[in-house]
Amino acid sequence: MKVSLRVENLRIYYRTLRGYVKAVDGVSFEMGDEEVLGVAGESGCGKSTLGNSLILLKPPMTYMEGRVFLDGEEVPIWDNEKMRRFRYRRISIIPQYAMNALNPTKKLKVLMDDLLREHGSDFKSHTAEILRRLKMVNLPESVLNMYPIELSGGMKQRMVMVISTLMNPSLLIADEITSALDVSTQKAVIEMLLEFKSRGFVRKIFFITHDISVLYQIASSILVMYAGKLVEKASTDEILEKPFHPYTEMLISSLPKIGIKYGERKLKGIPGQPPPLLKPPEGCRFKDRCPYRHSKCDEEPPIVEISDDHVVSCWKYA
Amino acid sequence: MMVLENVTKIYRIGTFGGKRLKAVDDVSFEIDEGEIVSLIGESGSGKTTIGKMILRLIRPTSGRILFNGKDIGQFKKNELKDYYRKVQGVFQDPFSSYNPLYKVDRIFDIAREEFFPDIGRNEWKNRIEEKLRSVGLNPLEVLGKFPHQLSGGQLQRLLIARALVMNVRFLVADEIISMLDASTRIDVLNLLAELKDSGLSILFITHDLSLGYYISDKTVILYRGSIMEYGDTEKIFNSPAHPYTISLMESIPRIDERWRMRSAVIQGKEKSIRNGRMCKFYHRCFKGDESCVEPPLIEVEKDHFVRCSKIGT
Q1: Are A257 and A116 members of one domain?
Q2: Residue A145: CB partners within 8 Å, gap ≥ 6?
Q3: CATH code of the domain covering residue B71
Q4: Nearest-CA distance from A302 to chain B in Å?
Q5: Does the distance separating the beta carbons of A192 and B253 come in below 8 Å?
Q6: CB contact residues (below 8 A), chain A span 249-268, against chain B
């Protein structure tokens, strides 16, 4: 695997009056070229913070430590000014609720022109490519002269996809882009995203969702986060077939599947709640909900390499 | 127990209410005692409108809803109050169901004042604690707290507990678990199934088919206000007959089977509907042709109805 994104010991905290909320707390991982890496976890586990930190640190997000390398070059995520060179051109994002992120007072054409000018270009020099891509996602040319309010939810989603990938970024962060959609629209959006990738509009996708069954459809590997920490990362097939971390295992077995009925087989959830990240417990953060807990779990669990591309952070395997 | 007879709801839309939108179009189905019926459809299919009409938050434009044989539209003061003692709803967003300025206990207090003023405070309190335990909550951990101090799953379970304290017979559950995390949503689903075993009837409104399959006895597939397929859950999932249901089944993200991805970005150009009497799904249908005019709901096998002109062809 040719590594093209490397994140080393990244810590991103939120500064609050009561102290730091440790949203991303020492996360390291690698991503191959042309890979779709899925990021899964419950709300509040830090998955969106991780994705956002790779492109823009909005206050109160605070960079504590860690390094990020993209295609062999260091990405200065702590430096807002230096990041301008990367933002949109090399690292782009489809934010959560992107459909509502379009400025309602501007025609889409003007909106795109503003965005492109901000990055040293303009609408005119990209017109041909924009029209070509609109056609690919089945949007008529006339949308450019419309206001966002005139578009349906699905149309807006496709529009945002075209805008976000216009500069052919190396890395696209897709944050919960299908979570608010119906199943049939969800599938169509994902098909379009993969089509964009196969045409080289984006090289790799960092796909954040809470829905593991969606990741199974598109991701080549999955990174599972829990309470700000990476708990397991492996290829999609491996993580679904034999998850190592107790959290991953319980999460996957709690998913309802077609063919499983309550009367025949009762699924179980995970009792308890994630710990507060303002003052997380010592050692393993999952220990209070874990059926395998023992005294060792009060110490920081090591990252264990099960195989070449399968890591898990749990004392069970140390 | 709850019967919908040719229920239609037309909304007036547009700046001056000049346009009309048929949100629910001649829908009939029923929910028996101790039965869970899933109402499945995409956004705009009218599923929430149906839930609201059952709760009498809005009135049908035409058609009737019968509860134990009586038209709920005719209920006046006392009858209506009695109806709400038996029929309650829980909605998608647990956070907006509470007033953030008050402690969560208030939802129980109001229920007592409004519906059961004869029950003493102590007895009511005992009932609350008993029901909280039955939904898997520790009364000491949740009572006396403000909504922001609790998780979405806890808030949602409190609302279900409220319905149980009132000893309701029918629950409208509108997307109640779509905002919950995977690790807790299954517990709320299991809870609904347990309640059903104790005789509660539930209308389970969802867009997530695998959740519907897990707990429901019957399934209603709604598209643009019309029932496209209706019947026994097992039959609908194992042998879907309507092209819409089939396409829904193929789009479910599963963890045991991968999607067959289409290579082309553009999928089937939408056909325009010129004839207002055409099947509503015609423009997206892979089978549809000029003959798909006002398809009737046909019984294809026992407890399995489909609205499609192409059945058997």
Answers
A1: no
A2: A107, A108, A109
A3: 3.40.50.300
A4: 24
A5: no
A6: 250-252, 254-263, 266-268
| Domain contains B238 | no
Per CB-CB distance under 8 Å, the chain A contacts of B228 are: none
Is residue A55 located within the same domain as residue A108? no
Give the highest mean pLDDT range of A114-118, A243-247, B307-311.
A243-247
Question: Could you list the residue range(s) of the whole structural domain that residue A48 is in?
Answer: 3-90+168-317
* Model confidence pLDDT, tens digit, residues B141-150: 899 999 988 8
Containing structural domain, residue B99: 2-216
- B178-222 pLDDT, tens digit per residue, is 777 777 788 889 989 999 998 999 999 998 888 999 999 999 999
In this complex, which of A182, A217, A252 lies closest to B258 when CB atoms are compared? Answer: A217
Same domain, yes or no: A172 and A161:
no
Does residue B110 or residue B153 have the better pLDDT? B110
Q: Same domain, yes or no, for A57 and A162? A: no
CB spacing of B253 vs A261 below 8 angstroms: no
Interval A3-13: pLDDT, tens: 899 999 999 99
Residues A241 and A286 both lie in one domain: yes
Domain count, chain B: 1
Q: How many domains does chain A have?
A: 2
CA distance B201 to chain A (A): 16
Q: Say what the ipTM of the complex is.
A: 0.82
Q: Each residue of A139-193: pLDDT tens digit? A: 999 999 999 988 877 788 889 999 999 999 999 999 988 877 888 888 888 999 9
Do residues A56 and A150 share a domain? no
